């Protein structure tokens, strides 16, 4: 058991060494851009004006000098519960990075024949493929979350200091708000949910990566999209001559979308009551969002898709054992 865990740790470290640019430098570059653009822009705006301007439809409707004292608590609550949302662009980088990592994970080692070297080491195909799945499902999201939290704190500090200079001191109310400390934990609590929803996509991409000899992206994206197009065309023909209709929408949402879109953080919100999300106008209600999100696990389709993802990962393990192009 200890030997197995040690091997998995080493394999995961190897993946991070080989893909440090994608998993570390890419999100760091986006984080630096956010700090420069948002933080710098916010500081510049406050440095060049002494008032807070509110606009609607591009036209100024009210300008006040500072914030009324009775609004401090509300402003602090919004800042304390929503400061992590400012780094949302980081979580748009995550699915792109993981998508192309999974596509190349097993294909590239056959193409450059490095698979001959790795197969000469005392590591099983199961350990190798599972380490790549673990990097995609756990390590990459955790790195993004860590960078996102650090970036959010930097931007929050810049905003609070700039506001304090202008006479709107929200530092104490924000630090006294429990959501300031709980928000990172709320974000981390979504990781198990992300793993369940991402399993079908990771499994599909690893399966294609282990099987396709070339044009991996075209195989991974083209097969489900062409299948959807053919099914839609067949449904059209059947409908014209028999009046029957196939459930093309279901195939698109439950098969194609899960195969290709599962890596997008928050994809499960498509299954959540939209009205509840729209009512988040006084900061993000972390416990409510967590409850709504985990409520999607009550759907059997989610678990069927996750099981299919595990089956495809198993298929990738078997294919790696047999498809040695050395």
From TrEMBL:
Superkingdom to which the source organism belongs: Bacteria
Transmembrane regions listed in the UniProt entry: 21-47, 83-106, 133-165, 185-207, 216-234, 297-317
Keyword entries, A-Z: Membrane, Transmembrane, Transmembrane helix
Protein name: Uncharacterized protein
Organism: Massilia arenae
